[in-house]
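Exercise 7. Given the encoded structure of a 251-residue chain, write a plausible sequence.
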């Protein structure tokens, strides 16, 4: 408990799944949390109520990460409300279609890149100046095990998550000497809304059965990686991909 006592966090892509679990654990560990997402008004409101019930400050922000100005405004709103930001989590993401490359549309490819890559780029672009000014900060980006182990019929998504890892490593090298760490979490199969709409049930089951830990992970199990990376214990960790994935990708 209290690993994040007094910290101020902005979680983008926060209303469901891993993002919501991150918000709950951050609050349980002592952080005030800005809950940012597009739509999901009821989910955001319910989550804010849960966080406030722990005694932490929390509020909701509407942000579509495809829109640069909205991301800039979300970062500014969190700073204005909390006074500063210690932690920014760029978690917004979509799965796209599960099609062979010759069946993919350019529009779908562009949409996946707009959310999964540009959204992370914008989140870092507007968080970093504030953190540089303060001489400290934690940025945590959500990638995927598919960044390191791309699968067929997942080309746009796999490429987008590999790009997130590359962005993470590049920015980590830029800002490391300024007290800012930048890391990625690369979840494996996780019991989230995205998991349940991704591919066919038999394909998902076959994947789970192939894992060394043959089950789907829970969002909270993934969220603990974010707590660690946001904490003082991870002060010497940067540019890394943390992979809670049931053993799907091993180093």
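Solution.
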């Amino acid at each position: 408990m209290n690993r994040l006592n007094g910290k101020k966090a902005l979680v983008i892509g926060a209303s469901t799944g891993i993002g919501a679990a991150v918000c709950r654990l951050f609050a349980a560990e002592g952080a005030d949390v800005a809950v940012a997402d597009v739509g999901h008004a009821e989910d955001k409101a319910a989550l804010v109520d849960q966080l406030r019930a722990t005694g932490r400050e929390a509020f909701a922000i509407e942000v579509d990460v495809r829109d640069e100005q909205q991301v800039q405004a979300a970062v500014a709103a969190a700073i204005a409300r909390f006074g500063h930001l210690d932690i920014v989590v760029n978690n917004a993401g979509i799965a796209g279609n599960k099609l062979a490359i010759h069946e993919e549309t350019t529009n779908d490819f562009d949409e996946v890149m707009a959310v999964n890559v540009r959204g992370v780029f914008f989140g870092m672009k507007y968080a970093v100046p504030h953190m540089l000014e303060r001489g400290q900060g934690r940025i945590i980006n959500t990638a995927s095990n598919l960044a390191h182990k791309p699968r067929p019929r997942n080309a746009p998504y796999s490429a987008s998550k590999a790009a997130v890892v590359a962005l993470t490593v590049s920015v980590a090298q830029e800002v490391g000497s300024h007290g800012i760490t930048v890391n990625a979490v690369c979840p494996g199969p996780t019991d989230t809304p995205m998991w349940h709409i991704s591919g066919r049930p038999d394909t998902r089951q076959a994947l789970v059965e192939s894992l060394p830990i043959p089950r789907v992970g829970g969002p909270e199990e993934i969220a603990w990686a974010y707590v660690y990376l946001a904490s003082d214990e991870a002060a010497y960790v940067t540019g890394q991909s943390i992979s809670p994935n049931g053993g799907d990708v091993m180093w």
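Remark. The chain has a mean pLDDT of 95. Students should compare their own answers with the one above.
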